[in-house]
């Protein structure tokens, strides 16, 4: 094999672990042309990435194997995060139980929240789901084994630490080889601000979220309370309260702009949780929208207007 970078090695090893569950140190050192010591160093770094997903590497003589804890996502960093793990768990359970129906067509974003949603889908017993995703996170990959779920991964350029593909093929019609929809797009991000919208720093990841929004008939933004009001530096993706030029332009060009019949707005549900010690009325979004409250989960309904 030609000499490759450390990040490329990590990506190959991660994919092997996802597919086979274990890898051998000697096989990898021979394949990559590096020492066993260097491979064991790779295992150390890969272990850190996996632990952020609630997964662990169990070392044995001659290699490592992938181990999943019985308590999913216990490996997420919890200290100082104000109960982020429990927030993600509660949000994913609500979305799958109340917002995903049998036979839905889903566009599943990449991220640990949507990975947890995939885990919840796997145990939900829902029938006939069809999922298109740019994620290759552990629980998304596991959906391939579920008989009532059809799943298509878009491929493209992998972003190892984000467990997602970017620069996916197919342009704005990426879904054409798979299913026609209508699609529910389930999105997450690094933050959400009422004025700015859904926040992401990586331009390539933003581009994928925008593709999903272009193809969607409905958008569900799942964002735990630690991300609310957070401002991302650099580039951002909008999803929420104001007209957005790139989406208006796309819809007008593909569906035809008409002054008599303006494009229908896209419904948006913003799903978040109420942090401990707070009330729903304390959340900034409650000043703009009336939430529907389900215990510690609240849902704000709005729309993306497609008229200028």
Describe the structure.
By secondary structure, this protein is an alpha/beta fold. The chain has 2 domains: 6-68, Winged helix-like DNA-binding domain superfamily/Winged helix DNA-binding domain (Arc Repressor Mutant, subunit A, Orthogonal Bundle), CATH 1.10.10.10; 84-304, Rossmann fold (3-Layer(aba) Sandwich), CATH 3.40.50.1360. It has helices at 6-20, 25-32, 36-51, 84-99, 112-122, 138-142, 203-215, 245-255; strands at 22-24, 55-60, 63-68, 105-108, 129-133, 149-153, 157-159, 164-166, 183-187, 191-193, 197-199, 216-222, 266-273, 292-294, 297-304. An 8-stranded mixed β-sheet has the order 6-5-4-9-12-13-15-14. Helix 1 crosses helix 3 (36-51), helix 2 crosses helix 3 and helix 4 (84-99) packs across helix 5 (112-122). It starts with 5 loop residues before the first helix and ends with a strand.
What coarse outline follows from CA principal-axis ratios?
A: globular
Low-confidence stretches: 69-82
Q: What is the beta-strand fraction?
A: 15-25%
| Helix content bin | 25-40%
Largest sheet strand order: 6-5-4-9-12-13-15-14
Overall domain count: 2
Kindly state the number of beta strands. Answer: 15
What attributes does this structure have?
single chain, 308 residues, alpha/beta, Arc Repressor Mutant, subunit A, Rossmann fold, 2 domains, eight-stranded mixed β-sheet, three-stranded antiparallel β-sheet, 8 helices
Summarize the structure.
Helices cover 31% and strands 23% of the residues.
Please write out the topology.
Layout (H helix, E strand, L loop, with lengths): L5 H15 L1 E3 H8 L3 H16 L3 E6 L2 E6 L15 H16 L5 E4 L3 H11 L6 E5 L4 H5 L6 E5 L3 E3 L4 E3 L16 E5 L3 E3 L3 E3 L3 H13 E7 L22 H11 L10 E8 L18 E3 L2 E8 L4
Parallel strand pairs: 4-5, 4-9, 5-6, 9-12, 12-13
Antiparallel strand pairs: 1-3, 2-3, 7-8, 10-11, 13-15, 14-15
